[in-house]
Structures are given as C-alpha cells and as structure tokens.
Amino acid sequence: MKEFVISEAQTETAVLVGLITQTQDERKTNEYLDELAFLAETAGAEVVKRFTQKLPTAHSVTYVGKGKLEEIRQYIRNEEEEEREVGMVIFDDELSAKQIRNIEAELKVKILDRTSLILDIFAMRAQTANAKTQVELAQYKYMLPRLQRLWTHLERQGGGSGAGGGKGSVGLRGPGETQLEMDRRIILNRMSLLKERLAEIDKQKATQRKNRGRMIRVALVGYTNVGKSTMMNLLSKSEVFAENKLFATLDTTVRKVIIENLPFLLSDTVGFIRKLPTDLVDSFKSTLDEVREADLLVHVVDISHPGFEEQIEVVNKTLAEIGGSGKPVILVFNKIDAYTYVEKAPDDLTPRTKENLTLEELMKTWMAKMEDNCLFISARERINMDELKNVVYQRVKELHVQKYPYNDFLYQTYEEEVE
Fold it and tell me: What range(s) does the Hflx-type G domain occupy (predicted)?
C-alpha cells in the first residue's frame, strides 16, 4: 500500500487553469491564480502557462468547456514537440473523480486540483509525528471518493450471467472491483487507526494545556505567509522556522513570553488560506485547539498584499468555522515597509480606489474602524514593535485581572514598591 505522506519536491513544469464566473471576476481570478502559482512554486513546480475561461459555473464533466480543453491539449502537444514537457495541469478548484478521469483521458498528463496541491505541500512540510498523522488522514479522506479512477484498467467485466442473462453482471465481479474493494477496506482501516492516534494526541495536548498554569493564552492567527512566525521570533526571542513560502508553519509552537513583569503564553498557528480543504480543518483539530482555547487573538495581516481585505474575511470565516470567533482581537497590519500605492494623475477624474490610498490614509480608515485594537508594523524591519508589545501587554493585563484577580501582584513594579 502506498504511503501518501512521503512527498519529494521535484521541479516539474505546470500549467494553471482557472474560471471567470458570475461570482468571480477576471481580477479576482488572476489574483487566485497568482496564489495557485505560489502554491505550485512552494510544492516545487515551475508554472509556464495560465489558461482562464468565462463560464457561469464549472463544467460538471470537464471543468472547462471542450474548446478550452482542446486548446490546453494543443499547447501541451506543441511544448512536447519543442522538447519542453509539461508535467502537470493544476486546476484552481476541487475536482470530482469524474472530472479528473475525463480531463486525464483528454490531456494525458498528471492532473491536480487546488486541494491535492495543498495536501502535497502539507505532506512536504510535516515534521512531527502529530503533523504527519494529521496530513495522512486528510490525504486518505481526499483519496477515498477518487479511488475508482486508479483502477479503470481493471473495471468490472461485462457479459450475461445468472437467471437475468443478457447484460447483467451479478456474480461477475472482475479483478478491478475486487482490488477496489480491498483498497477501500485498507484505507478505511488505516483511517480508523489514524483517528485513534489523533484522539490520543488530543488527550496529550489537552493535558499539556491544563498544566500550563495560570497564564493568559495569546494566539497568532492569519492568512498563510503574512509574517506570524517572524513576529513570534521577535516577541518570544526564539527561533521558530520562518520562510517566504506558504505553510512554512504546520505545528503549533507555544512559547512563554514575558513583557515587563507579565508572563503569558504565545502560540504560532498554521496559516489559513481561501478554499482550505475541509478535511484539513477536521484533521488539524488538535492544532486549531490552541486558537479555540486562546484568551486573545492577534490577527496578523499582510498590508502589502492587494487582496488583504479578502484575506481578513477568509480568516474570520475560518475562525467562525472552528469555533474561534467572538474572542478579543488585535488586528496587526504587517509589512508596512513593502506597501505600495498608485498615485492618481491630477487630470484623472475617475473615482479613487483602494489602490490609490496612501499608507497614512489606509491607517486612518482602519484605526477609525478598529479603534485601539489596530496596529501597523514591520516585523522584518522591526518598525513599531515596541508599540505592539505595549498594546499586547495592556490587553493581556486586562484579561489577567479578570481571569485571575488574586494574581494582581504580578503588576507591581520596583518603583511602585519603593513608593
């Protein structure tokens, strides 16, 4: 039986395919494909071409129309003639087993969808036994309904049989059906084992959380690649792995942080992403428990990203799904050093858009909306980090006084004692 967690990064060329629909305009589709290209690059693939098509909804049989599929097939054939082989075609949405089977039959190359690509990256990034178990379970959940296409060369044999005669196939199960059932049983057994293992991990994690004493828990949350791990390193003075790649952090890292004379626990969690596979959210329950049980959330946003407002919505939606909404939140806009805007010409009379706002204007807008719970920093350049520490200190202090009123002595400074 193949072990799906092991995934080696190999440089392959990839073609991306996305749809422009009634709910997703061309600008948004291109932005999604930029993210898909970043995902492909993180997985070790090189994107050589993009295809988009305008459709009301995805085609139930081939995702795109027949004409567009033929155009992609012709491009792959032309590249092969020029000795530039296309290794895979990646689609920006989750494909059904039928869609994958039909597209593969037409294009004759490896077909991936957004979900399988994210799962592959998670498999590459998983370091601990906990993360590996969670990823493997998510992969099996994804594979189970798609098993059929792996055995199309051994499909059930036809022919007359039994009392029915004619084209009936009762009692004529071919080797493909047997192999399919065997694989399904093996996978279901494996999934049961992994779920048991994760239940044990959940118990251990719950015990660890109970044993952490009377300290306020703060969790860093946000879209993937917004700089959470860099912030974690600065606040906790530790060395958490940080890299300009998607999903650099999979395992939750918890550190004890002391600002002035106030200790609290700070956790760095896995980054969220749009269209995050449900199986992954389910599998990463023990990791996301840190978010659910946190007293304060620090929502980190990459302000230099053109779609940062939508990323905020994605994170808020995911938090609601996992039961982590309704907590006190500090919104931290990171990467202000990388922020750029388009200055309008004096004779341009068209209305100003978000792209035309200066950083100062954007800051005023968000600070008016979020009041004192909004900060603008650069973790990499260490801009406004003292202000961040001060705000986190004040919020943690307020929560500590509410939760542990008899621990008030923590806030007595040396000067206060002298007076």
Answer: 216-400
